[in-house]
Amino acid sequence: MQNKGLIKFFAILFALVSIYQLSFTFVADKVKSDAKSFAGNDPDKELKYLDSIGKEKVFNLGFTSFTFNEVKDKQINKGLDLEGGINVILQISVKDVLKGLANNSKNPVFNKSLADATANQKGNQTYLDAFFEAFEANSNGTVKLASPDIFANRSLQGEGGIDFQMSDAQVKKVIKRKVDESVDSAFGVLRKRIDKFGVTQPNIQKIGETGRILVELPGAKDVDRIKKLLQSTAQLEFWETYKIEEMGNFLMAANEALKKTEINKVETKAVVKDSLNDLLTGGKDSLATKKGNNPLFDKIIGQGGGPVLGLFSPKDTAVVNSYLKRSDIRVLLAPDQHYAKFVWGKPTDIKDAKGKEIEAIELYALKGNRDNVAAMSGGVVTDAKDTFDQMGKPAVSMQMNSQGAKAWEELTGRAYTQKSNIAIVLDDIVYSAPGVSSGPISGGRSEISGVFDVTETKDLANVLRAGKLPAAADIVQSEVVGPSLGQEAIDNGTTSAIVGLLLVSLWMMIYYGKAGWYANLALAVNLLFLFGILASLGAVLTLPGIAGIVLTMGTAVDANIIIYERAKEELRAGKTLDEAIKTSYSWRGAMSSITDANVTHILTGAVLFIFGSGPIKGFATTLLIGIITSLFTSIFIARIFIDRNISRKNDLTFVTNFSKNMFNNFHFDFLGVKKWTYLFSSVVVVVSIVSLCINGLDQGVDFVGGRTFQIRFEKPVQAEVVKDELAVVFGSAEAKVFGKDNQLKITTKYKVAEHGVKADEEVNKLLFDNLKKYYSDGLTYDKFVNAYEGKKLGIVQASKVGPAVAEDIKTNAYWAVLGAMAIVFLYLMISFRKWQFSLGAIAAIAHDVIFVLGIYSLCYKFMPFGMEVDQHFIAAILTVIGYSMNDTVIVFDRVREFLAGKTKGSFEQIVNDSINTTMSRTINTSLTMIVVLLIMFIFGGESIRGFIFAMLVGIIVGTYSSLFIATPVLVDSISSADKIAIEERHKNAE
User: Fold this and answer.
1) Cβ–Cβ < 8 Å for 880, 852
2) Phi first, then psi: what are they for 310, rounded to 5°?
3) Above 90 in pLDDT, residue 37?
4) A Gene Ontology biological process annotation (predicted)?
5) What angle do CA 168, 174, 179 make, to 5 degrees?
6) Paired residues of 236 in beta bridges
7) Strand partners, 386
8) Confidence label for 278 from pLDDT (cuts 50, 70 and 90)
9) Element holding 783 (H helix, E strand)
10) E strands of 404-449, at which residues?
């Protein structure tokens, strides 16, 4: 091997750099472990401890030292499936941005195009492109985007803006830039909020040009709080309010009008005597206010007064909203109340007639106007901080700029004179509606008080300081993982890695003897390099990533196996050890097979990296890095040990007593049984396709959208019973045993298209209310939903995928599989210079993919583990494609070599001989893969068992197809004339 000294130098340098990079991870883990011990499993105390030492030196190398914050930034980060925490994808509403840019245009073509874009947006198509497409179809050239009543309005005019003479193409460029600016603004606002939230190592990044923003908060535990923090647009407004006395006549008239249409639908309940009833009935219990006769009044459960029209149950707010929005009801408003805006306050607890605490929400009427604009906007707020009011209750104080201070003084002055109230409204929720009792308030200082706890005021002050989002931000995908589940994943991943490493190493020693030891040393160096690169890249390690590392251990020895098998052949041919080694490491020896096999593998891994997301991208990252480091260590590091052995005149046979006679003189007529293998595979393919048409696949929420909950119970439960109970409240639900019989995986599509915090809270509460009977009384809603250290019961993992995101994921999956097959076809055609090789390979791949799909379609209903088709499954399919190509290329390379050589015999005999000589390589490379996959299947944990099973089946089927499908198809697709020419050439060869 030339330049041996240079390779040693770089190997040692690379090893030292890897150790250096990994040292930060060891130090950071040690500090975190100390913090956990100090805090006694109190997460808040642990976080405060880590914050307090953030700038302290914790790692001293003698020539330099690092603070904890610096060490933390350089460590290998653990993904949410290992660390626990919350992962969400926020969709910035491009529709709202477009409405704002068009000044809420009433143009019918514009508004129809917005609606059509929402309804017809295709997978992987941005909303903006869908809008432009819809606008072209609806306008048909009659209306321009640059119309004065659309985008050529006053706010968009000027330099870099839009004028009415612009073409649609010119306007599109400006609008695209404006939308990008809005997404960038939202990104900045969210980053400020997250930085103040207090989790370690938060991650926020934009996802292409989709208008989506990924937010990862490792270690975060309060689910509802975080979702509110992220989704709040922070649209702060100050509105004047109507008093209950001013709205009394309208409410009475509305109640009378509703009797005509709603009286048969009204639920019977006790009417609460309050100021509204007193106002309308003079304090007398007339027939008009008897229970069951008043569609609106019967829903009042608490006393109103001042600006509060009444208190209602949260479950009735939707119905009351529908009443107050009806045109036949709004027409009953007095002329000066025509633009009244009805909004709700924050939920509060009151006591009912029996003294029991119940949740209630206050109803307010704001003094609106034609443009639906508040008397004063919150954009004037320059600072906000959490504090306490005069009663010692948590509140938020605000400071306004000079313009805001003047407007605030005028507004409070008017409220003082009119003895009215000012509602402080954040995102259409009234937080408080104080009166002004001491005259106009000057100086621009104000305070928001109400029903708060300290945490809420901190978050409210945070979002006000960070500023408002330019448009609504909806959570279209989310995942919540409890810390205890993350620790289980780490334990499972570590166990599978150690067992897999030991078994692969043991097999290499048993089969190859001393050479196996060299391969194992190269494997150890490979793992050091792999982790070092992951650390230096700041990569995030996930459970599928650990699976990728374990798989790397299987592939790391593949190149050694190919080289060793070639060396054995050369030794049997009578060459010296030195000659055999040189030949096996040459292009004519093993290098062409290794190159083709790994290039096809890298290509499929690259496709997986491009189209994957989250944990799947982590799997692709470790897989790609592992392929490269494996090649380096197998070809160069193992070679250093072998050359050292040769220089010392030591014997090296590449066999042991156990393996020396294995596969020697192996003869099997692979092409002679092709009719039977064709028949068998045809039956399998037909059965698989029929099953796919009839049974379909168990599509995960990644592909169809929905909510998934992994829930642990105190005792075993019956999945069918839970499913039937939840179907009553959710409309439809699936419940399956997931791992142990006290754990269920529950899936529902209930309100999955609704992205607000209220919808998520409603689903969580319905889930808790219907499942709490399976727990003892000590389990509260917070403990059931939120994560905390040592959590063993309740929701341990939850995820949500909206329909639009699911459509994008499904589209990406199709393109990933088709793209991988196309790339492999083209590469093999170029490498082997005959399209027949590509055809045989693609036939084998298609066979393997259909086989795996068929197994999943036939078995998902009764297998004791999850067999969902989701992103993880697509990752498995792409991995199968890569490894199937690995086996096929090994066989094809030998076929190409024999066809170009001097072997005597018929065409089919030459091909058969070439296949038989690869059996030791084929079986060994497949066997090491199957071993590590079996280990991961057994020890890797429930969450990746279906993913591993797909790869396990795929590798076994891929080995079969490379021998019995790919090669026969190659042979059958070569013309008779070419076969005769090859036979004649071999006959005349010396």
Assistant:
1) yes
2) 160, 165
3) no
4) protein targeting
5) 115
6) 426
7) 396
8) low
9) helix 781-785
10) 422-426, 429-432, 445-448
